[in-house]
Amino acid sequence: MIWADGRLQDGPLLAIAAGDRGLTLADGLFETILVARGRPHRLDEHLGRLAAGAAVLRFAAPLDEVRAAVLALAATEPGRAALRVTVTRGAGARGLALPAVPQPTVFGSIAPFDTGLVFRPVTLATSAIRRNEQSPLSRVKSLAYMDNVLALAEAVDAGAGDALLLNTAGRVACTSAGNLFAVVDGVLATPPVEDGVLPGIARAELLAAGRIAGLAVAERSLSPADLAAASAVFSTNSLRLVTPVTAIDGRAVEDRAGIAAAALALLQRGVDAVAAGGEPLVS
Q: Cα separation of 236 and 233, whole Å?
């Protein structure tokens, strides 16, 4: 069953059970998908991540149902839009034990996306909240998102635009809602998944490109000192694509070579290609 702000007319609005484990235990996953001209961008990759995340949580996501719902919902928005699809394990008895036969709940929503958020610069403040790289939830798009919510609030209270999250070993992990890239020693580097990083869709696209603006793109662990010495820093996610970082904890970052702009151009070409009915430029 799909709930989609009343926009899907072939079924009733979904009444979520009070015992749904997504509500009671954050037992579920979500994906946020960019829609351009009625077409969801990188849908196969989002579904693949959803399936992998569900396997980590030990249930099977109903991918055919999710795909059909996403396509139908995306078709309701002719412009740039943000589509969110949520899959929970479904209702269960009280307690923590996994239901023997999960019956997943699926629901989604869509809303116009403000393109002015794309490439809007941001400052970062290092959060006291740490990303737990030992937790299986660090590599899935879990509904348990309050660490990110509180880290962002902490950063805003400090006068920054977003949070920089380190992991429990003190290595760089991510921002509150994006993957981090930094130019360090002539390489455009992004932390590996093992450091508590969500395998982002835009992140994967940049890694697949291999080189951006003449720089090799690679996964490697980053320290706060690496960021302090970086000649460019930016974050990525599926909606905003690229967000340039202009300062970290009050220290200015200047991207004189325009690396972030080159990364944006690559991702935007892929979005435009899919919106026109073609395939992504980088697979």
A: 10
- Could you tell me where in the chain the CATH 3.30.470.10 domains are found? 21-113
The CATH 3.20.10.10 domain(s) of the chain lie at 122-275
d(CA 70, CA 85): 7
Percent of residues, the chain, with pLDDT higher than 90: 90
- Tens of pLDDT along 20-71? 999 999 999 999 999 999 999 999 999 999 999 999 999 999 999 999 999 9
Measured from the Cβ of residue 34, the count of other Cβ atoms closer than 10 Å reads 28
The pLDDT mean for the chain works out to 93
pTM summary value: 0.93
Over the stretch 115-148, which tens digit does the pLDDT of each residue have?
Answer: 999 999 999 999 999 999 999 999 999 999 999 9
What pLDDT score was predicted for residue 279? 62
Give the number of C-alpha atoms closer than 13 A to the C-alpha of residue 15, restricted to the C-beta side.
2
Q: Output the CA–CA distances (angstroms, integers) from residue 123 to 23, 49, 235, in the order listed.
A: 33, 29, 11
Which residues 6+ apart lie within 8 Å of 115 measured at CB? 80
Q: Does domain 21-113 have CATH number 3.30.470.10?
A: yes
Half-sphere exposure of residue 103, counting CA atoms within 13 Å on the CB side? 8
Q: What is the DSSP string of 69-127?
A: HHHHHHTT-SS-EEEEEEEE--B--SSSSPPSS---EEEEEEEE--GGGTT--EEEEEE
For 122-275, which CATH superfamily applies? D-amino Acid Aminotransferase, subunit A, domain 2 (3.20.10.10)
Number of CB atoms found within 10 A of residue 228's CB: 13
